[in-house]
Every structure is written in C-alpha cells, then in structure tokens.
Amino acid sequence: MTGIGTKATGWAGIAVPVLGMLPIAFTLRNFPKYYPYWSDSTGDILAWYSRNRTLSLVQLYTANASLLLELVFFAGLATVVVDTTRRTSMAARLILPAAAVLAADYMVADIFMTIGTLAGTPSHPSTPELVRSALESSYVAVLAAEPAAGMLLIATGLAIRPTRLFPLWTAWSATAIGALNILITFDMLIAAGPLVPLSLLMSIPYIAATLWVGAVGWHLLRVRHELAHRHGSSLRTENTT
Question: Element (H or E) spanning 126, and its range?
C-alpha cells in the first residue's frame, strides 16, 4: 500500500471512535440511560423521542458516517496485512466481508431508529405501536450484528499479529473484545434492569471496539514510513528478479 493509502486508513480509524461515540455523547443528559430500555412503557419511549428528536437524527448521521469510515479502515488494514506478510491468510480474507456485514446490519438498525425518531412529526404521522416496534427492531438488529463484530475483531487480531507492525496488545485485545461482542448477542434474552440492550453497561464492548479501531489507526500513522520503505523494498526486489 502507498503512503497515501496508509495515511487514509489511519485517519479513517481515528475518525471512527470520534463519530461512533457521538451517539452516546449526544444523549448523556439522560445518563446513565442514554437510550430507552425496551422494558420502558410506550409512553416513556415516545417521550424520549420527543425530547431527543434532533439529537437522535444527528447521531444517526454520525453513526452511519462512522460505519463507512470503518469499511475504509478495515479494507486498508487488510491490505497492509497482505502487503506486509506477502500472503493472504484466512483471517485476512475474513476482515472485509465481516466489516461489510457488520456495517450493513448496523445501518438496518439505524433505519428502524430513524422511523421512531421521525414518527409523530407533521410529515410522518404514526402510531405508538409502530414507534415501539421500530425501537425493538433496531435493538434486535444491533444484537444480531454482534457475532459479525466479534468475528471481525478476532480475525483482525489474528491477521495483524504476524506483521510485527503493531504492539502485541492490539492482537490479544482484539480477540478479547471480539469475544465480548459475540456474548452480547445473548443480551436480547434480558427484559429489564441495567443489563438490557443498549444500556450503558452493555455498550462497553462497542465502546472498547471503537476505541481499539482509533488506537490502531493512530499506530498506522506512526508506522506509515516503515510501511512505505517495506513497499519500496519489495518493489525493487520484484524488479530485479
């Protein structure tokens, strides 16, 4: 990968937690309950949307933007792995498909959340039942995406370790965070309490994953000159053979 490509990948990774964490930051005035619980009454869910409609729309746009940047980051990171190791492992092959499935599933969740956010406005007449159904569908879509998130992180951790470009902690932490994301899927079995879907406690794996992407993106910017040197050396070797 060229120096420009590595730089773009690094900056995309740094931007992911900035944009991805805004959905939580925007509704911190409701701390620690920054989203409705699906155990809430329909009236409470409608009241949350009424109070947070503008912020909810903004955070949906920022969340979708972070998902697109996430695709750029993982595509670039997979390219770095293949260029550095000079081979395409199964783990490296899984990175981009898993990232695409994750982004698509999260965007489906955002569509349902948008339905609830716009419901009840003059141009979007609705019913309380539709708003509640959209909220629960959004949460189920998020939870259904977590195995893909886990596979993505575990595959990435396995793929980057042989490159020797990244600190060892980036590989094992990716595996640990990935395992947590897979387990979060079973959160859909919890109906009430502080461990319900999208509660602050159950968002910890998501927060950890986005911070991991930002940290690896920052590290890529630090090692981009070494990558450019390796790329140039490999090209010279190919030209002389």
Answer: none
